[in-house]
Amino acid sequence: MLSLLALLPVILVLVLMTVAGWSAARAGLVTAVFTVALAIIAFGFGGDGRFSVVEGIAGVLAEAGFIALTVVGIIGPALGIHYLQRSTGAAARLRQALALLHPDPRLGAILVAWFFALFLEGAAGFGTPVALAAPFLVAAGMPALAAVSAALVGHAAGVAFGAIGTPVLAQSNLVDFTPAELAQATVVFPLSLGVILTAVMVVIIGKAYGHFRGLWRWGLFAAVCFFVPFGLIAWFIGPELPTLGGALIGVLLFSFVLVRHRRQIHAKGGPGGDDTVVVTHPHPDARDVAAADLSVLRAAAPYLVLVLIVLLTRLVPPLREALQSVEIAWQLPAGFSGSVQPFYHPTMLLTVSFLVGALIQRASWRRVRIAFVTATLQLGPVIVALIAMITIARTMSSSGMTAELALAAASIGLAWPLLTVLVGAFGTFITGSATASNLLFTDLQASTARALALPELPLLGAQTFGAAVGNIIAPHNIVAAVATVSLTGQEGRVLRSTVPTALVVIVLGGVLALLLVL
């Protein structure tokens, strides 16, 4: 009976968001109030001698607010960079540079749906990759439905470490594992199954352009270009840079091979084969090329500065130790606590990248101010939603609800790992965010692993991977994407096109999780 009661908050937030159509903030607030009341009435929250009801509520809200601020601190400057790039024309300049590289429109689609979307996911995340990549693909000639589907599938490969590792960093606040340990546990899943996403993207692009000649080898090459640096960075550096760094290194390698291939075509005086559709461009003057290269580097300045800062702060031990030596920590008498290393936290890294990037691009103070204000104004609903979702998760944990669900799940036995990826995807489906999914279900995954005497890290990695896959079918992402390509009202068509891919990856991910814990 208690396990059914403990499940009510999850069911309520699901019903409010999917059936009633409420926003994450509104549904989260109502469910948070319900969860606290349920915890007090049915689970003895505040009545077991550890703390009073008032102390418990205050402690949960303090933890929720603190964690939410550390997450919003990442979102704010990341969105600021995005809006600055748009206002200065840097984003358009980068799109033009990408467009000049492809001799075949299908390969240009791979550049956008795979590398461009992954790059945006690594740098900003939170819905921006699909909302930007989909209209870019439409402008390049792809049908709107195919463009949205390709962008959704393509960017999902990097969501686990998107927005400078936000899902993993948020998860690390809830468990006794470091971000680096969680990154290693998570990266196994996209490295094993991510190529499925690449293959589906290739199918979408091939169907959109009417033929697959030569496309499969380019798709496989794109997967290798991204996943090799992606995996190495996640394993040896941490969760902040895998998606951003993998996309940047991958697109440079992929583009280099494209340019060589294009030169070979020109040297032969024709296509030289029937696997590409050639678009011929005049040979520019060397000085024009140098100026164009400098312009592209300036346009990419915030991202390049971010890569440099992350590498220095993670790979130079004296600098890393100095930054980590400063810590802000607090603890309430009831045992609720929180801590953060402000100079090592991605908030500081992104803020510096935003400011230095603006200086390199010679952006006016007015543009910088507008970008900052625009990003900040969008954080209100995000903060409310995050606090609400974290309050639900922390109340369930502090009151014993999560432990009760874990005991019930333990009765499933070794079949539980099969459901871990599904749980993560379910969380993203109802919240629209991989980070929110981790905040909602990480405690459940960890508690269930302990109840079953299973290793926690593989199941936590499965949770994050599932949360990433859930982005393919998250209504929030789909609604935002279709609006940018004039498909409003066709969300159901997009969802039907992506659900099969999500289900296949979720099932295989569950099998992999089971193999990892046996």
Tell me about this structure:
The chain is mainly α and 518 residues long. Helices cover 77% and strands 2% of the residues. The protein has 23 helices and two strands. A two-stranded antiparallel sheet has the order 1-2. Helix 1 crosses helix 18, helix 6 packs parallel to helix 22 and helix 19 packs antiparallel against helix 20. The chain is globular and about 80 Å long. The protein starts with a helix and ends with a helix. About 1% of the residues have low confidence.
Write a short abstract of this structure:
By secondary structure, the protein is mainly α.
Cα-to-Cα separation, first versus last residue: 30 Å
Global morphology:
globular
- Order of SSEs: HHHHHHHHHHHHHHEEHHHHHHHHH
Biggest sheet strand line-up: 1-2
Percentage of helical residues?
over 70%
* Average pLDDT figure: 84
Structural class: mainly alpha
Can you summarize the main beta sheet? 2 strands, antiparallel
What labels describe this entry?
77% helix, mainly alpha, two-stranded antiparallel sheet, 2 strands, 518 residues, 23 helices
